[in-house]
Amino acid sequence: MAIRVARRTRRKGHKGDLGAFIWLLLPAVALLVVTRLAPIGEALWTSLNDPQSDGAFGAYLALWNSETFRNSIKVTLWFNLIINPLQVFASLMLAVLLTQNLPAVGFARTLIFLPAAIPQAVSTVVWGIALRPEDGLANSFLQIFGIAPQPFLTSPQQALYSIMVIASWIGVGYWMMFLIAGLRGIPKSLLEAASLDGAGWWRQFFSIQLPLLKRSLSFVLVAATVANFLLFVPVQVLTRGGPAGSTNLLMHEIYRQALTFHDMPFASAQVMVLTLITLVIVTIQFRLLRPAT
Amino acid sequence: MRSKRTFGEPGALLKGVLTAVMIVVAAGFVAPTLWIAANALRPQQEIFTYASELSINTFIPVDWTLQHFVTLMTGPFARALGNSLLISVLTVVLGLLVTATAAFALSTLRVPGKSIIFGFIVISFLVPFDALAVPLSATFRQIGLDNTYTGLILPGLGHGLAIFLFKQFFDNLPIELLEAAMVDGASRAQTLFRIYLPITRPAMIGAGIILFMFQWQAYLWPLLVGTETKMYVGAIAIARMFGEYSTDYGALFAGSFLLALVPALILLIFQKQFVSSVASTGLKD
Q1: ipTM field
Q2: How far apart are CA B1 and CA B228, in angstroms?
């Protein structure tokens, strides 16, 4: 607080401030404008100037009528509807477990976080080999429990769920760290007071920890949703959207239209849809990031 | 000690059960990584033998060999790994310069409209870059930046999250520090490089890790822009090896091992800053 007050009473607007401000900020802002803002303009322009169709919104009309795009949206929504609650729940369980007073708990935390640091291409390739139906690690593991070999990525019924497993192995430890930070921020005195009042562990968890963790949980839910809406690597490397379009997530559909079919207006219209969805989610996130008043 | 025990300190039995659960879960998470290491260090024919027959030898090789690393580093992967290192290191050096200066301006100067610029920076890191990679790559191809190191490095430099992290640290430095430097006649650059940066080492490390990981993890951008074999980065080279008609699995695992080892080492050395830099992104009030 003291800093804030000092800052506010400081001389208002030094003469050289504006000039220095521009020079110091110019490189970063220029880079952000070129690499983060201009592409949105580029996508908008390209999507509105489709030589293959009449009228400004031709590409969007084609999008609306495209069976592939509709399937891709369906797959993306279904994927997110399942994976996001699952990841939040799993990372919450892990965060609670790994904030207990257990031996070597810090080491366990590091091991579970480690997959988030490994490049996604590596995780994807290794999981791709482990999920091979005939001689993969996953089926040998299931065999221990007497479960018959599964087709995993080669089956339209299982491929999307296999990708969820890969994405969660990567993501859950990462989201767990945010929740551990949140749990640590809860004042110990609150829990001690409740304990003195005779509240047991479960009561303390549901009445104190969970409500106070709401902010962290919402943040993780929104951030995980953005990340999973844009999931790309496992699809591009392992399934190319198949079998039978069952894993054709939106980001891969954009890549396919742009790079395989060279249909930039169509791909750009899809980019605009994806950017719009992301911006809506991010706006919610932006509010969560602001300190609660 | 007492304060620790009062909140839900589990009894001995419960503690034993929780520890067991923790060990099983951690083992499950680490198993694929151990499998990479084991497969990188064992002869080719052992890889699938012990994958389809689960035993302790699945994760600990019977025979050890470094042959796969020799194969790997005498092949095209060596250049891809070098590309990854070059791009990541250059991004860290140039990126720290750009983001620290920007954060310094945002933190110390009083200029109207500052909050709008800061808002734009925050939005820029909340919207993942991948969403914009396809249209940006079209632009980069038009202006001839595809298959150049400049083209591969540029999107990683102005990382909004690194700016955000620096600004948080700078905001917490006492204003007297800045005023004293100004009174002594130090220029803004001197104030930043001689006074601010040396005492914000944790922020430097945190921002450096963010910048490094962005490039080391990158896949879609190098896939779009680094299409020539000589411009492949490690992640692309590994995915290509996997997609080949007859894959050398030993070399594939050795390459995976090296690509995972670099961030794992960074994680071990800078554990505290690593975790706090990813987990403290604005969640603190």
Answers
A1: 0.89
A2: 61
